[in-house]
Amino acid sequence: MNPLPKISVIVPSFNQAKYLGLTLRSVIDQAYPNLELIVIDGGSSDESPDIIRKYEGHIKFWCSEPDGGQTYGIVKGFSHATGDILCFLNSDDLFEPGSLQGAGEYFARHPETDALYGDTLWIDANGTPIRPQKEIPFSRFIFLHTYNYIPGMSMYWRRAVYDKAGGLDPSFQMAFDADLWMRISDHGTISHVARQWSRMRFYPEQKTQRFREITIREDMKVRARYWKNQVMPATYPLKRVIAYSMRITWKLLTGCYGLGYRRQMKNP
Fold first, then answer.
1. SS3 for 187?
2. Alpha-carbon distance 87 to 95, whole Å?
3. 46, 67, 81, 177 — which has fewest CB within 10 A?
4. Across 142-157, average pLDDT
């Protein structure tokens, strides 16, 4: 097997002192031998800078200054990254133990793979499990006609395809990841492994919950790029029903719907 690639992990954060230490520990405790950790804080007024300083011996670069928002912060982080493999982890989410090792080994064994994602576990503000998000392999048709089902905190990609795709687009506030995944799929292959690689917090203050309408609007902007003259085709509603049916059937057949968790969330 080829040597493990260097993985650059970008942690964007703003006033997330409640979770930031746990997030950083979940990266550092991986003990991945070729890790580059970069923390971009947007000028927090809470204890975040002190928390970052506590771990700065493990951090290649960090700063705490206004940056224009999450997407700009991640872009800034990648500008300091030198890894062969790139990823980001929101400051309220967590890596599962062994996730970096699993991703690094996969890329070392599969040079043909340009991007790779695993599954995630949704947790509440206190870290209590809500339910697992077990996913299907990437399908451009299903992705374009349903929603972004790739867990961003479980997604890794090669620097080469990131550069070829044009990098993150800061004009997106919420759907910057969905936009990047689609452009990566224009230029390379996206693979999936059925392993839980992260934990994603789901709580009322979460950005995705607070700005749901912006997310929907930006998701449609991503789709419109693939429509002629950016006009929704008359067949789109039918294709959307077909895509949802395909997704649900695929998840049922592959055992993606878990039981035994205390409540179910939106989106199948």
1. helix
2. 11
3. 46
4. 96
pLDDT at 68 (0 to 100): 86
Q: How far, in Å, CA of 30 to CA of 100, rounded?
A: 7
Q: Is 3.40.630.10 the CATH number for 7-253?
A: no
32-42 pLDDT per residue, tens: 999 999 999 99
Distances in whole angstroms, Cα of residue 236 to Cα of each of 26, 65, 183, 247: 41, 43, 20, 16
Q: What do you get for the CA distance between the two ends of the chain, in Å?
A: 37
Per-residue pLDDT at 131 exceeds 50: yes
What residue type is 95 in one-letter code? F
CA atoms within 13 A on the CB side of 210: 6
* Annotated domain spans of the chain: 7-253
Which band of pLDDT confidence, cut at 50, 70 and 90, is reported for residue 208? Answer: low
Contact 200, 154 (CB under 8 A): no
Query: Of 107, 145, 154, whose CA–CA distance to 226 is shortest?
Result: 145
Residue 110 vs residues 47, 116, 151, 152, 263: alpha-carbon distances, Å = 41, 10, 21, 21, 37
Long-range contacts of 54-57 (CB under 8 A, 24+ apart): 54/21, 55/21, 55/24, 55/25, 55/28
pLDDT at residue 223 greater than cutoff 50 = yes
Distance (Å, whole) CA 74 – CA 69: 9
Q: Using alpha carbons, select from 21, 18, 15 the residue that is nearest to residue 66.
A: 15
For residue 260, pLDDT beyond 80: no
Task: List, in sequence order, the alpha helices (H) in the chain.
Answer: 17-28, 48-54, 70-79, 99-109, 140-145, 159-165, 176-187, 207-210, 212-224, 236-253
Percent above pLDDT 90 for the chain: 87
